[in-house]
Write a structure and sequence with these properties.
5 helices, about 40% helix, two-stranded parallel ribbon
């Protein structure tokens, strides 16, 4: 590679780049709104509830299959299988608190399921 003086084309490109950067600098300063110290700028944006959290129906412990139970927070494939096995061995759940009888579900996990589960569509909430 030959080193030497910059060509006319290189000088033109350098000049155009410098002009572009200067223009960006000027535009960035003109777009700024001067703020007094301690001033709070408030904006309002209304986000439809559907975009924040789409509505969902709680999972019914007595009718859900393994795939539905697996969608619950903290419930994996193995625990979903144990819930179904418990339901088949002991009959339908009468309350959501009865879920504590399933191996692997304690108070904390039950609390994490608050609002996510129901029994027979009654809307029983986890305490």
């Amino acid at each position: 590679m030959k080193r030497g003086k910059a060509t006319k084309t290189e000088w033109c490109l350098l000049g155009l780049t410098a002009a572009f950067l200067c223009l960006l600098l000027v535009l960035s300063h003109t777009e700024q709104i001067p703020l007094d110290p301690g001033v709070v700028v408030e904006t309002e944006t209304e986000v439809p509830q559907e975009e924040v959290a789409p509505p969902f129906e709680p999972v019914d412990l007595n009718t859900a299959d393994e795939a539905e139970l697996d969608t619950l927070p903290g419930i994996g494939e193995a625990l979903a299988g144990r819930i179904i096995a418990y339901r088949e061995a002991n009959g339908p759940f009468e309350t959501v608190e009865e879920l504590l009888e399933v191996s692997g579900i304690g108070e904390k996990k039950l609390a994490d399921l608050d609002g996510w589960i129901t029994v027979n569509g009654t809307g029983d909430a986890v305490p």
